[in-house]
Amino acid sequence: MSSKPTYLGLLNAVAVAELGGESLFKAWAAVTPNEDVRALLQTVALREAEHARSFAKRIDELGYSVLSKDDPGLPERIATAKSKKLTDREKFEKFGLTYRRKGADIFTRFFNDMTIDIQTGELLGRYISEERDTGRRLKACYDGLLAAENGSSGKSTKAPNAPAPPKKLTSSRSVKRTSSAASRAKSA
Question: How far is CA 57 from the centre of its chain?
Fold first, then answer.
């Protein structure tokens, strides 16, 4: 490429932040006693990991490398995630995962750069869609935790339309496969 892409900083920021997110959600999933919360956190951690690596790969394809940036608050957030003294609800609140923003979010500016190439645009589009879905699922999980604490009948901590989590994982190979709504619709 003849000149440095103007969106390289954005790609780098996403790669670095998502790597930290993977660590945080994995740490939280490892200590939660709630199977539904664990299943969701594991999904989110996998998404964060995939995003970090996909963006690092795209940066490499453009002829550059990820520039690591120190996040001085990450160790403290991971310590919070690992805490066995805090409930899952308290962790949701400490991490600010308790509401869904109305209107525009931070992702609306991502496509303001008119020089983004098709391949990078596809990557950003998928990333944004998954991040928004993750936000919805986390909010639904938090709402379920609140409902369970308040004794309401809505005790589910699953996100709407989320596949049911596996009952119990006995090894890294025991993964329950669930068909997507689209697959079920096709077969109907």
Answer: 19
